[in-house]
Design a protein that fits this description.
It contains eleven helices and five strands. By secondary structure, it is of the alpha/beta class. It has a five-stranded mixed beta sheet with strand order 3-2-1-4-5. The radius of gyration is 33 Å and the shape is elongated. The two termini are about 60 Å apart.
Length: about 240
């Protein structure tokens, strides 16, 4: 399975106020292993950045002045994520901003490009109801080192999210392993070739005598209804 761990940073919290994406990062994982392929852009939003957002990510409009506009990177981004499952923390937020940007360009939206979108915030809330489930809290809970995360950053957060996702779904991985076909037994292997004759073990005289004694007791207790009469020939 090909999965893309995605994160964005924005000029503010709401697209209805015209806020835009300023950073976009994608980290690729195939069959639960990171491939070291990633996509990362800083994007010129052509607008001011809210002070609250600046305090979170520290990305200024001056820094973004010479960066490409979203339209210049959109097609490369869509090609990178095409057909993959997206894994996003608080997916509604990021997908909302991505669809907003793509709609302005007349391009395909996320749901038409990707196989599925998985929300790790929803997963975490189901696993840990009533607890903090932001990325920092999950890193602490699962023993993932995030000491270098002093500010939010899309690429770093996408990489941390990949580690968190593997930790959250580790039990599912074990289940998949349990469902894998068991290795062939010695008997199955022998049956693939020429079948060996089974050894015949005959009862000893003492065992036959004990057998007759037990049958007699059953016959007496059942008042003659024993299913194995004493006259049954020995084998």
């Amino acid at each position: 399975m090909r999965q893309i761990f995605l994160d964005t940073e924005t000029t503010g919290l709401e697209t209805r106020l015209g806020h835009r994406i300023i950073e976009l990062a994608c980290v690729e994982m195939v069959n639960r292993r990171l491939t070291r392929r990633h996509l990362h852009y800083y994007v010129n939003p052509e607008r001011d950045i809210d002070e609250g957002a600046l305090a979170v990510h520290g990305i200024s409009r001056e820094f973004l002045a010479d960066k490409p506009k979203f339209g210049e990177v959109a097609n490369e981004f869509l090609d990178f994520i095409r057909g993959a499952e997206l894994v996003i923390h608080n997916a509604a937020f990021d997908v909302g901003f991505l669809d907003y940007e793509l709609n302005m360009l007349g391009l395909a939206t996320i749901s038409t490009v990707c196989a599925n979108v998985r929300d790790t915030l929803k997963m975490a809330r189901e696993l840990h109801p009533g607890k903090k489930n932001n990325l920092n809290a999950l890193c602490e809970r699962y023993g993932i080192n995030n000491a270098h995360r002093t500010l939010h950053g899309a690429l770093l957060d996408a990489e941390l999210l990949a580690d968190v996702y593997v930790a959250i779904t580790r039990g599912q991985e074990s289940l998949i392993m349990d469902l894998a076909p068991a290795p062939a037994t010695e008997l199955q292997i022998s049956l693939q070739g020429q079948r060996k004759p089974a050894p015949v073990l005959r009862a000893s005289e003492a065992e036959l005598a004990e057998h007759e004694r037990v049958l007699a007791a059953i016959q007496k207790e059942s008042k003659g209804k024993c299913l194995w009469p004493q006259s049954e020939p020995a084998v």
